[in-house]
TrEMBL record:
Lineage: Bacteria, Bacillati, Actinomycetota, Actinomycetes, Micrococcales
Keywords for the protein's UniProt record, in alphabetical order: Iron, Iron-sulfur, Metal-binding
Pfam families: Radical_SAM
CDD domains: Radical_SAM
Domain of life of the native organism: Bacteria
All residue ranges annotated as the Radical SAM core domain in the record: 52-301
GO molecular function: catalytic activity; iron-sulfur cluster binding; metal ion binding
Bias (Basic residues): 308-318
PROSITE patterns, alphabetized: RADICAL_SAM
Organism encoding this protein: Georgenia ruanii
Chain intervals with Low complexity compositional bias: 325-347
Region (Disordered), start-end ranges: 308-347
Protein name: Radical SAM protein
Length: 347
């Protein structure tokens, strides 16, 4: 069924007023229960606030909201800026910037553009299933490479394999970093926590495909879930699977629960693991992040898994605002976690 035939006839214009540049809203049987709001955007490059701990200045998010439905996603609260909720709306009301490639090319052509590193996958996954319909990423990759702009991509989506030839070619002209988000390899638990994402097996195959294409593939093993995925055996299995798939580096981080994500995740935990709710309330009672002693304990445990599977002998690739602010790898063996660590993406 053609998407053009699925345009919604909105009877209450006020309901969509927060969506600046709205062209149309679309539903399709291929994405049951999801509405795509196609908008024309005025900007493609987003400047990261100066006070942010993120190690880059610029991001691109072709979409807002995410089909992955990860219960812990820190970006959920950003939907509230649109007068949408951080729970069901974040999973089902997806904003698509249909003209993002055209706008990006204009911005990259400005004399003021300094060709700083640009990160994709920081607020929504650029390779969620809808990218198969909208095909925005090939134009974005080409625009960045044509302008001489280095970039990175973080994803849970095996659809990235479609663009591997483009990424390999881009890497001959600019620095390109590719990372896959994978922290859960128990397929049953993974599908309960991240019901809209590809299976662990599919993501391990994606890591292998990236490595076989000649690109380094780092992995963000975030979030590690207290009492659910942080045992010695679980971390050993995770690092072993990632090493076997050819990952170049692994960064580990404990779950953090910002407002918006906190309510959604705790509701899920109450349904799935009610006995753990009091423990989580104690662990996260004083803020969004797990206490420093837990994070340090997790870092030491992950450090042992790193050494066992040879990741300590692999030089990690990092990008940074400048040399002075380059953060130490969060997963370095025995390194204490920072007081308020930055999760590099919504995953």
């Amino acid at each position: 069924m053609r998407w053009e035939a699925q345009e919604l006839k909105v009877t209450d214009p006020a309901a969509l007023l927060p969506l600046a540049g709205l062209v149309r809203s679309i539903q399709t049987p291929d994405f049951a229960g999801v509405t795509f709001h196609e908008v024309v955007c005025k900007s493609a490059l987003n400047r990261v606030p100066a006070q942010s701990a993120m190690p880059f200045h610029w991001t691109i998010n072709p979409t807002r909201g995410c089909l992955h439905r990860c219960t812990y996603c820190f970006a959920r609260r950003t939907h509230e800026y649109l007068d949408l909720d951080a729970g069901q709306d974040f999973d089902t009301q997806i904003i698509v910037k249909t003209n993002v490639v055209e706008v990006l090319r204009r911005e990259l052509a400005r004399p003021s553009w300094q060709r700083e590193h640009v990160a994709l996958g920081t607020n929504s996954d650029p390779y969620m299933r809808a990218e198969g319909r909208y095909k925005l990423m090939p134009g974005i990759i080409t625009a960045l490479a044509d302008s001489g702009t280095p970039f990175s991509i973080l994803t849970k989506g095996p659809l990235l394999r479609r663009d591997l030839p483009l990424l390999v070619e881009a890497a001959t002209r600019v620095p390109v970093s590719v990372a896959v988000s994978l922290a859960l390899i128990d397929p049953d638990l993974q599908q309960r926590v991240e019901p809209g994402t590809a299976t662990p097996k599919a993501r391990l195959e994606l890591i292998r495909a990236i490595a076989d294409a000649g690109l380094e593939c780092s992995v963000l093993a975030m979030p590690i879930l207290p009492w659910l995925t942080d045992s010695e055996d679980q971390l050993d299995a995770l690092f072993g699977a990632l090493a076997g798939a050819g990952a170049s580096d692994v960064t580990v981080g404990a779950l953090h629960l910002r407002p918006g994500a906190r309510e959604w995740f705790m509701a899920w935990l109450g349904r799935e693991y009610p006995a753990l709710v009091p423990r989580y309330r104690r662990l996260y009672g004083s803020g969004s992040y797990a206490p420093k002693d837990y994070r340090q304990w997790l870092g030491e445990r992950a450090g042992r898994a790193r050494r066992k599977h040879g990741f300590d002998r692999r030089a990690p690739r990092r990008w940074a605002r400048d040399a002075a602010s380059d953060p130490a790898p969060a997963s370095a063996p025995a390194a204490p976690a920072a007081p308020e660590p930055a999760q590099l993406a919504l995953f």
